Amino acid sequence: MIVADRLEVGYQGRSVWRNATFTVEPGEFVAVIGPNGAGKTTLFRLLLGLHPAWSGGLRVFDAVPKRGNARIGYVPQRHTIDFETHVRCFDLVRLGYSGHKWGFPLSGRREKEAARRALETTGASALSDRPLGGLSGGELQRVFLAEALVGNPDLLLLDEPLSNLDLRRAKALVHLVADVVRSRKVAALLVAHDINPLIPYLDKVIYMANGNVACGLPSEVLTSASLSRLYGVHVEVLRDSRGNIVIVGGEDHTEGELGGGEDHHEGEAVARPFPRGDART
Ligand SMILES: Nc1ncnc2c1ncn2[C@@H]1O[C@H](COP(=O)(O)OP(=O)(O)OP(=O)(O)O)[C@@H](O)[C@H]1O
Ligand SMILES: [Mg+2]
User: Fold this and answer.
1) How many other C-beta atoms can be found within 10 angstroms of the C-beta atom of residue 232?
2) What domains sit in the chain, N to C, each tagged with a CATH number?
3) What's 63's DSSP letter?
4) Residue 210, exposed/middle/buried by CB under 10 A (0-12, 13-18, 19+)?
5) Poorest-confidence range of 34-38, 215-219, 239-243?
6) What's the predicted TM-score (pTM) here?
7) Which own/partner contact pairs does 114-119 have at CB distance under 8 Å and 24+ positions apart?
8) Dmax over Cα atoms in the chain, in whole Å?
9) Distances (CA, A) of 80 to 31, 84, 120, 146
10) Ligand 1 in contact with 11 (CB < 6 A)?
11) 15 lines ligand 1 (CB under 6 A)
12) Which of 109, 120, 163, 160 is nearest to 143 (CA)?
C-alpha cells in the first residue's frame, strides 16, 4: 500500500527528517509518534500528494501520490470547518462521500445510506442531526472518523484523533479504528502523542525525532537502543507496573524539556509517558 525508500523532506531549504524507509500493508495499524514539529503531519502531506519529497522514493497504491485520492480517508489535525455554521453531522459525513461537491442539495440515496452507515460504524448515529458546533471533542472525533470512512477507503490517515479525549474515550476510539482495520483490511496510520492506548493493537511504529525516522515492529522500535539512536541522546524505555511504556530522557530537547520539569534536580531520573502523555489522561 505504501512503499517509502530513503525519503527526505523539508520546507524552504530546511530538512525536517531524512532516511525514512518503510512499507505499510493492507490490514496494518501503524502509530506515527514523535515530539511537536518532528514532521508527523508532513508525512501525511507527502502521502496525500500535498507536498513533494526532497529525495528518495514514495509509492502509494503503487503510484506517485497525488491529490484527491478517493482511496484515502483523512482526518486532519486541524479541521477547516467553521464551527459557527450550523452544518449537521449527517451533512458533513454525506459531503465526505460526494467528494465535497457543494451545491448539489439533492444528493442520492446511496450517499445518504453511506453516511448513515459510517456514523453507525463510529457509534455516532445519535449525533446525526446535531450541528457540529455543539459537539464535545470526543463526539467530534467520532464524526470526523465517520467522514473519513464514508467513501470506504483502503488507507486511513488520522492526525491526532485522540487529542482532547480522556483515556477511556481514547481507548474506545483506538478500539474502533482497530476494528475497522481488521474487518475491512484497511491500513491505518494514526498520529498520537501517547503510544500507550495504541500498544495492544499496533503492527508497526513510525517514530520520528531529531530529523531521524525509525520504522518497524513496536518491539524493534520501542527500545532504549533504538530511541537513543533516534534522539541522539541516551533514552531509557521502561515499563510501569501496568505494562505502560515510559520513556525517560526522550523528551523533545529542541523545546528544552530534556531532563524534565521545573521541580526536578539535575541528575534525577524523570519518568513520564512520552510525550506529555500525562497531560492527556
Ligand atoms: N508549510 C510549511 N512551511 C514551512 N515549514 C513548515 C510548514 N509546515 C510545517 N513546517 C515545519 O516543519 C516541521 C514539521 O512540521 P509538522 O507539522 O509536520 O510537525 P508535527 O510532527 O506534525 O508536529 P505537531 O506534533 O506539533 O503536530 C516543523 O518545524 C514546522 O514548523
Ligand atoms: Mg502535526
Assistant:
1) 12
2) 2-71+153-280 (3.40.50.300), 81-143 (no CATH)
3) B
4) middle
5) 239-243
6) 0.86
7) 114/150, 114/151, 114/152, 115/90, 115/146, 115/150, 116/90, 118/93, 118/146, 118/147, 118/149, 118/150, 119/89, 119/90, 119/93, 119/143, 119/146
8) 66
9) 24, 12, 24, 16
10) yes
11) no
12) 120
Q: Is the pLDDT of residue 253 over 90?
A: no
Express each pLDDT in 52-85 by its tens digit. Answer: 999 999 999 999 999 989 899 999 998 776 666 7
Alpha-carbon 117 to chain mean position: 23
| Residues above pLDDT 70, as percent of the chain | 83
Please report, as a single letter, which amino acid is at residue 19. Answer: N
pLDDT digits (tens, 9 = 90+) for 134-148: 888 889 999 999 999
- Residue holding cell 523533545? 252
133 in ligand 1 pocket by Cβ < 6 Å? no
The residue behind cell 467528494 is: 99
Q: Say whether pLDDT at 193 is over 80.
A: yes
Cell numbers representing residue 129 in the block: 442531526
| CA 122 to centroid of chain Cα atoms | 17
Establish how many alpha carbons lie within 13 A of residue 88's alpha carbon, considering only the half-sphere containing its beta carbon: 12
The three grid cell numbers given for residue 54, joined into one nine-digit string: 526532497
39 lines ligand 1 (CB under 6 A): yes
Chain mean pLDDT for the chain: 84
Strand ordering across the sheet containing 236-239: 236-239, 245-248, 271-272
Which of the listed residues 8, 14, 16 should we mutate to test ligand 1's pocket, taking the one with most ligand atoms within 8 A of CB? 16
Which three three-digit cell numbers place residue 16? Answer: 525536517
- Kind and range of the H or E element at 278? none
